[in-house]
Amino acid sequence: MEEKESLWMLNADDTSLEQDSPKSLTEFQGVFPNEDSCRTYLYRARFPTGFACPYCGWTGMPYGFRNQPDMLRCRGCRRNTRLTSGTIMEKSKLPLYTWFWGAFLVTSLTPGMSALQFQKMLGIRRYETAFNMLHKLRAAMVRPERDPIGGEWPVEVDETYVGGETQGEGRGRHHKTLVGGIVEVRPRKKAPGADPNLPSGQRPRHGGGHGRGFIAGRLRLQIIPNRKQETLEPFVLANVRTGTEVRTDGWTGYDNLHKLDYTHIAVPVKGDHAKTDQHLPMIHIVFGNLDAWLLGTHHGVSPKHLQAYLNEFVFRFNRRFWPMVAFDSVLKIAARVDAPTYAGLYKGTWGHPGEWDG
Ligand SMILES: [Zn+2]
Questions:
Q1: What is the DSSP letter of 298?
Q2: How far is the CA of 63 from the centre of ligand 1 (A)?
Q3: Same domain, yes or no: 164 and 118
Q4: Residues 120 and 170 in one domain
Q5: How far is the CA of 84 from the centre of ligand 1 (A)?
């Protein structure tokens, strides 16, 4: 193999990639126009302070190979390191470019494409390849986030039924699954700037008339077996820091939250939708979006797989202001050194899929 410094590596000191996250497909295309730009990004993400050999610790510009651009050879010990090792792209025959586009599509706020659409958009020849790729990217989004939320911000807690209607069984909630939701209410002034998912730096609009200077912070969603106190209390305890102000409706299942070291604010709404929306605006918007996503995109989801979809929804929701953090995360690229600190949002302790175990 011919050893030489390849062109894309020489460009790795180029600081043009330090710009803000791409805010649209067009911008994304501008930042990642070709395979070299993807390699440069990967190189900078893996070696933010320059190449360091994982075997001998030698630092400097490694050798590159024209016919194997993924390979870096240490000039000290001459051992090889793959640029993609440890990432989701390792051992894949697809171009990095295709993976980058796939990751951008699944982490952007308008997700929900079928494997067939995905295949067409990315120009992948075989359906199975597109299917597997989409599956791998989405698998990175279904790990639940476990660190408790709330603290200095109040949270809204409520439950909702999700699932498809069943015909021929009369009115009512047949085969629906109960989901508990908790969302932080944060003052807008602490919001992290313009929403990158909206054109031209528009401010995020959460809740329309309910917004009034607040935005939704972190979210948790979990399937719960029922609305009993012995279910709802462990649900809140597992997800919300003690001492937090917890807002609920007047349901009796929440009656004793104040005894669990929470500041409990309950408003009896008795099925009055207007009142409920006024008291718990954020979580109801979340429930509405969730419903639309499950029905519109996935045409309903069986209870067996619902928690994985809830986790994916939460993953994207919690990173909606920083799509590039989500992007790195699904590609399993090492953590960004410049990742925003948002109360431990990104160093969440990953666990097993969040099935109910209360
Ligand atoms: Zn070495």
A1: T
A2: 11
A3: no
A4: no
A5: 17
Q: Cβ neighbours of residue 352 under 8 Å, at least 6 residues apart?
A: none
Q: 43 in a domain, yes or no?
A: yes
Is 114 a domain residue?
A: yes
Say if residue 193 is in the same domain as residue 232: yes
Q: How far is Cα 314 from Cα 350, in angstroms, rounded to an integer?
A: 13
Q: 86 C-alpha vs ligand 1 centroid, how far in Å?
A: 18
Task: State residue 27's pLDDT score.
Answer: 79
Q: Are residues 89 and 203 in the same domain?
A: no
Q: Number of structural domains, the chain? A: 2
Rounded distance from Cα 81 to ligand 1 centre (Å): 9
**Based on the domain organization, do 174 and 72 belong to the same domain?**
no
- Boundary residue ending a domain (139, 171, 199): 139
- The answer to the question of residue 144 being in a domain is no
The answer to whether the Cα torsion of 321, 323, 325, 329 is positive or negative is positive
pLDDT tens-digit map of 32-53 = 889 999 998 899 888 888 899 9
Closest CA to 311 of 356, 344, 253, 280: 356
Q: Is residue 145 domain-resident?
A: no
Q: Give the C-alpha separation, 33 to 117, whole Å.
A: 21
DSSP β-ladder status, 177-187 and 155-162: antiparallel
Judge contact between 99 and 331, C-beta under 8 A: yes
Q: Are residues 231 and 275 in the same domain?
A: yes
Distance 51 CA to ligand 1 centre (A): 10
Which structure tokens are listed for 278?
């006024």
More confident residue, 337 or 236: 236
Can you give the residue range of the structural domain that contains 281?
155-320
Helix, strand and coil in the chain, % to nearest 5? 40, 15, 45
Task: Please give the Cα distance from 220 to 301 (Å, whole number).
Answer: 19
- In angstroms, the CA 254 to CA 236 distance is 9
53 and 77 in a single domain? The answer is yes
Residues 67, 132, single domain; the answer is yes
Give the separation between CA 95 and CA 83, rounded to whole angstroms. 13
Decide if 184 contacts 154 (C-beta within 8 A): yes
CB 196 within 8 A of CB 20: yes
* Distance from the alpha carbon of residue 57 to the mean position of ligand 1, in angstroms: 6
In this prediction, residues 147-153 reach a mean pLDDT of 93
